[in-house]
Amino acid sequence: MTTRTRILTGITTTGTPHLGNYAGAIRPAILASQDANADSFYFLADYHALIKCDDPQRIQRSRMEIAATWLAGGLDVNRVTFYRQSDIPEIPELTWLLTCVAAKGLLNRAHAYKASVDKNVEAGEDPDAGISMGLYSYPVLMAADILMFNAHKVPVGRDQIQHVEMARDIGQRFNHLFGNGQEFFTMPEALIEESVATLPGLDGRKMSKSYDNTIPLFTSAKDMKDAISRIVTDSRAPGEAKDPDNSHLFTLYQAFATKAQEEEFRAELLQGLGWGEAKNRLFQLLDSQLAEPRERYHQLMSRPSDMEDLLLIGAKKARAVAAPFLAQLREAVGLRSFVNQAAAPVATKKKAAKAARFVSFREDDGSFRFRLLAADGEQLLLSRNFADGKAAGAVTKQLQSGSALDVRTEALSFSVWLDGAAVADSAEFADSTARDAAVEALRVALTPIED
Ligand code: TRP
Questions:
Q1: Which tens digits make up the pLDDT trace of 207-231?
Q2: Please, which pLDDT band fits residue 302 given cuts at 50, 70 and 90?
Q3: Which atom of ligand 1 sits closest to the CA of residue 163?
Q4: Does a structural domain hold residue 28?
């Protein structure tokens, strides 16, 4: 039995990773995957990318760049399962099964969707203007990503916590409806890395493409150097003491430095190191750590078929988990083969009710009677005689209606009464225990099937 923790996270493939993505998400994820206890599933969320982006070139470029970044950063594909979401057809299939149990009201409350609605309302537009079903259903697709592999931990940014909670909600509902006492889905937990500070960008705000303040990661040493030269600093001249704790240049340095390097840099700033020289130090530090992976990155990008092969191997590994699990889930919801139906798990009570049947027949004297047979063919009741088929039919109908059954026991048998008259009788039993068991079996057989 494995006790490894399954860690799963997806990266939406709409952009080019920058230094902030690397320090905040990629590097910690690669480190976490090296833990002997971790069973990591990392994937390119390219179906999610389609929600935000309708530029095929950009989607394709981003998928390659992100794959190359993770591989160049040292992700060991023999240890982890690294794949493209769109290579796993079981994901959209599970998405549909989950869509059918996800409450619309739950999705109405999703932050991303609500923010778009609010924006429309503010602008005086139709609330749903420009909102696709993809955006609306985004959390269900994400729930399928997570639940498909029964992830325990899902490392995400704060903005994604709600989505992980929705995955729990939807998974729980599916378990409840179809689990039959068995829990199909593990409840995932969002993992927020408190220790990993989000990197500040050139202007000191969070490094983000939308602020246009990023430092490029692997494009080239020159691009990195140029960006670093644009880091905003205060106007203290060389020789004047700098305040490391109020300098985002120092924060950037810290994110890549050892404790000793950090202390040395701090001391130099306090002693009046010029900002130009400080930027130089930052560049040297980053370049010493990133030159080698940068080289690997460009190699990978120049040989896309190698990456394709690696990702297809990853997809195969992922599908080896997903396909048999999905088969189980299809079975659970009733999408089953018509052959070998007996093998399908069915609630016993419902089965008995479904299978119990009335068989009518005619006596030599012309009267009508019926037997009630249990699923296994055992006779539960034999009716009295009725003058015509219509009367017998009315009685069977009423017995199936679900109204309270009037059973009267006599010694070692019992009879069933309707409107003050006995309409059917049991056989004779060996003892009262057998008789009472038969009464119980009769009640079960006549319990109406609920939808
Ligand atoms: N929505 C996530 C993001 O934008 C990416 C993502 C898709 C994801 N599926 C996931 C993250 C499953 C964790 C688990 O950051």
A1: 999 999 999 999 999 999 999 999 9
A2: very high
A3: 1
A4: yes
In sequence order, what are the residues at sequence separation of 6 or more whose Cβ sits closer than 8 angstroms to the Cβ of residue 76?
33, 34
Domain of 407, in residue numbers = 354-445
Looking at the fold, whether 249 and 182 belong to one and the same domain comes out as no
Asked if residue 194 is part of any domain, the answer here is yes
Among 63, 83, 95, 156, name the best residue to mutate to test ligand 1's pocket (greatest count of ligand atoms within 8 A of Cβ).
156
351 band by pLDDT with thresholds 50, 70 and 90: very low
For ligand 1, the distance from its centroid to the CA atom of residue 145, given in whole angstroms, is 8
Determine the angle formed by the axes of helices 161-178 and 304-333, rounding to 10 degrees. Answer: 40
Q: Are residues 293 and 322 in the same domain?
A: no
Cβ < 6 A, ligand 1 pocket: 8-10, 12, 45, 48, 142, 145-146, 154, 156, 160
Q: Do residues 95 and 141 touch, judged by C-beta distance below 8 A?
A: yes
Q: Which strand (E) or helix (H) includes residue 437?
A: helix 432-445
Q: Of 385, 361, 356, 382, nearest to 446 (Cα)? A: 356
Report pLDDT digits (tens) over 309-321: 999 999 999 999 9
User: Strand pairing partners for 200?
Assistant: 206
Three-state SS at 83: strand
DSSP string, 286-326: HHHHHHHHHHHHHHHHH-HHHHHHHHHHHHHHHHHHHHHHH
Distance CA 126, CA 111 (A): 18
Of the residues 7, 88, 142, which should be mutated to test ligand 1's pocket, given the most ligand atoms within 8 Å of the CB?
142
Q: Does residue 348 surpass a pLDDT of 50?
A: no
Total tally of structural domains belonging to the chain: 3
CB-based contact 188:167 (threshold 8 Å): yes
Cα 42 to ligand 1 centre (Å): 10
Kindly report the protein residue whose alpha carbon is nearest to atom 10 of ligand 1. Answer: 10
Angle (CA) 261-262-268 rounded to 5° is 90
